[in-house]
Design brief:
Layout (H helix, E strand, L loop, with lengths): L1 H16 L15 E4 L12 H9 L4 E8 L5 E3 L20 H4 L6 H6 L16 H8 L5 E5 L8 H11 L12 E5 L2 H10 L5 E5 L9 H7 L5 E5 L5 H9 L3 E7 L2 H9 L4 E4 L9
Parallel strand pairs: 1-2, 1-9, 2-4, 4-5, 5-6, 6-7, 7-8, 8-9
Antiparallel strand pairs: 2-3
């Protein structure tokens, strides 16, 4: 049955479910992709150089980077619109210049929240810029980048595109795409598709109940997206297979336990966002 389904997906892609006339770049179907959610966030403060380095050493397929933008227009790695949760500061990222942002401690909170994992060195962590991450890791890792809150950051897409070009990360000569861009915001993804039609894009969804997409939804997705990102608890195998037959890879977030990892594998997902890269050993 699994072989038959694989053949059907392959035939669908050959027949054009990837919408090749729109230059949609496919993502490899050969393996379950392991995406380090905010870096190795189970072991170190999320979105810090240490978290990314641990993920890199664990040989994940992608490190995930959430982007916000400072008052002076610099892209920085942070999940929340506010700095309150993951630094010793208060207020919105957009209210800080980069210089002010660099004064914040990005690791002390982790030691307080997880004393069993506390490390004095974490208290030296600063909020990294996207450019600093590119300089540090270059071509050695693959990047899965989420444009957070694009409605409040004018020109965010162009700034990301410019940095990807500057660091030569837009090439297609890799077994996996070097960069995947994700967002909950459809407008920002279609805008990015215009900037770089060959870059794989993933449309994020957060379903409150059982996941469902209509034929019209898939038709729209096929004009710009290579896949969808969906919350694990909302999906079943039928939904995932339907999405795949419509040319969409399915990446599930966020996997925190062995049971969740085993469930994602059973569901035939194409990729998983994991806090703990060691879960990849369950494949």
């Amino acid at each position: 049955m699994r072989l038959l389904f694989t053949i059907l997906v392959s035939l669908c892609l050959i027949a054009g479910c990837d919408n090749s006339e729109n230059s949609i770049q496919p993502i490899s179907n050969d393996k379950l992709l392991i995406i380090a959610h905010r870096g190795a966030s189970a072991f170190a403060p999320e979105h810090t150089m240490t978290a990314y380095e641990i993920a890199h050493q664990a040989d994940v397929d992608y490190i995930e980077i959430d982007l916000q933008m400072t008052k002076d227009g610099v892209l920085v790695a942070m999940h929340d619109e506010k700095v309150d949760r993951t630094t010793d500061g208060l207020g919105f990222v957009k209210e800080y210049t980069l210089e002010e942002m660099k004064q914040l401690n990005a690791g002390k909170w982790f030691n307080e929240a997880y004393p069993d994992l506390a490390n004095k060195e974490f208290e030296q962590e600063k909020v990294p810029t996207l450019e600093e991450i590119f300089v540090q890791f270059g071509d050695d890792v693959n990047y899965y980048i989420e444009l957070k809150s694009p409605r409040i950051y004018k020109g965010m897409e162009e700034k990301l595109f410019s940095l990807l070009k500057k660091y030569d990360l837009l090439g297609e000569d890799h077994s996996l795409p070097k960069v995947i861009v994700e967002s909950f915001n459809e407008d920002t993804l279609t805008k990015f598709h215009t900037l770089e039609p060959t870059l794989p894009l993933v449309q994020l969804f957060s379903f409150k109940e059982k996941a469902a997409l209509s034929h019209l939804d898939y038709e729209r997705l096929q004009t710009y997206a290579s896949g969808i990102g969906v919350n694990l608890k909302s999906v079943d195998q039928e939904f995932i297979h339907e999405a795949q037959l419509n040319g969409m890879q399915v990446h599930l977030y966020s996997i925190k336990t062995e049971n969740e990892m085993k469930n994602a594998i059973h569901l035939d997902a194409n990729g998983v966002f994991v806090d703990n890269p060691i879960l990849s050993e369950l494949q």
